Amino acid sequence: MPRVVIVSNRVADLRKKSQTGGLAVALADAMRERGGIWFGWSGETKEEAAPAVAETIGRVAAVSLPLSRREVEEYYLGYANSVLWPLFHYRLDLVDHRPNFLDTYAAVNRRFATELVPYLEEDDLVWVQDYHLMPLAARLRELGCRNRIGFFLHIPFPPPDMLAATSNHREMVEWLLEFDLVGLQTSTDVGNLTRYLEEHMGLEEIGGAYRHGSRQVRVERFPIGIDPVGFAAMAREEPDDVAIDLMRRKLLGQRQIIGVDRLDYSKGLPERLRAYGRLLVQHPEYERVVSFLQIAPPTREDVDAYAEIRLELEALAGSINGRFAEFNWTPIRYIHRPVSREKLAPLLRASDVGFVTPLRDGMNLVAKEYVAAQDVEDPGVLVLSRFAGAAEELDAALLVNPYDVDEMSRRLHQALEMPLAERRRRHEELLEKVMRQNATAWLESFLEVLERPDGNQEAGTADQVAA
Ligand code: GDG
């Protein structure tokens, strides 16, 4: 079995098992089984360029390198998170392209490729994760790397016309053509990329792959999942404070709506708060009865758009609380700090409604975690944005348009009033999908397609002979 080499912006800390999500755990398990390397940025900033350092744990090595402050600003906060993130989330209005961003992004990818090559063995499967590293296969190929290289994009892929609003759209897609396999979250994303390949580049699909020059690339959907069994077990282990809070609410007949998101403008948080505010206006009977717990830890605070969304959210939460709160009841509890996974899982289980309303999301794992965490005898209701990748599978949730505050408020009401039989029926359907399309299934199906022989090996051999 070939080794697997994962390349991502940050190397996950594989020793902190409980803090990392199902994804890092699934990837680490696969590497332990096959042997392999996890390569990426160490998360440190150092002024002088330092080489990658390997730390070996059993058959797995974590290989990481520091970045300079300028690289962090222009590659990570800059091109990746101020250009690609908004563009791929359909937010052209938030794209903030500044001089050097693209050059530094290209340079960091070149440095990653140069540092990675000495660690690669002939049969290794290289699996590149996410939008930070789109040019990596092209740079590795330039250095003579003939390994199978796959790419998985965790975020949405935008429609061709939206992509075409950037000056270097063709270059971006050409980067992707150097991979053997490009994996995307949904059929909408696959449709967007393949339409670009066909309409803007005149490529044709033959036998499940797009040919260009002597190479070919497959584009397929691999919806990502969680470790539902592990998450459900964690959800049943209530810490005392969560158990006491739940008892108190039961005694008082109070209900809880929950949201959990990194504080990101793609997550639709202001619209979500407004919808809850609207619910309280339209249903005064919920005052002192239904509260909303929003956990929204900070991320990417050095990017202006993130500072702005934080201010907007704090003003909104403050105004809704100011308007409706009683001396013994707080309508919105907004937590702008990370909460441990051990607490998050039982909090999701102890909530009557999971309110997950991104304006656009690659998948959204919180939706799947909410489903996995529920008590199957008395499950809560998932209210889910149509524009989360998860909606493609989780259509037994109450699907909403996250821009439509009225509709979201009506769906919250429907969720809060839903009879037990309907809750169970919907939950059973959701859970079945979350169990089936789990993190391990996602990983195995991707590697299985990446390993499948195609014309690229022959093209590689022919090139080698010619050279
Ligand atoms: C990207 C794509 C895609 C959140 N707050 C806390 C916390 N979390 C955990 C959640 C969940 C994870 O972080 C977030 O995952 P999401 O999928 O919801 O969103 P992104 O971070 O934007 O992830 C997304 C994903 O990649 C995978 O492909 O689904 O579409 O954008 O696991 O529970 N965890 C802890 N404390 C918190 O306060 N411990």
From TrEMBL:
InterPro entries: Glyco_trans_20
Pfam family, one: Glyco_transf_20
Family (UniProt): Belongs to the glycosyltransferase 20 family.
Name used for this protein in its record: Trehalose-6-phosphate synthase
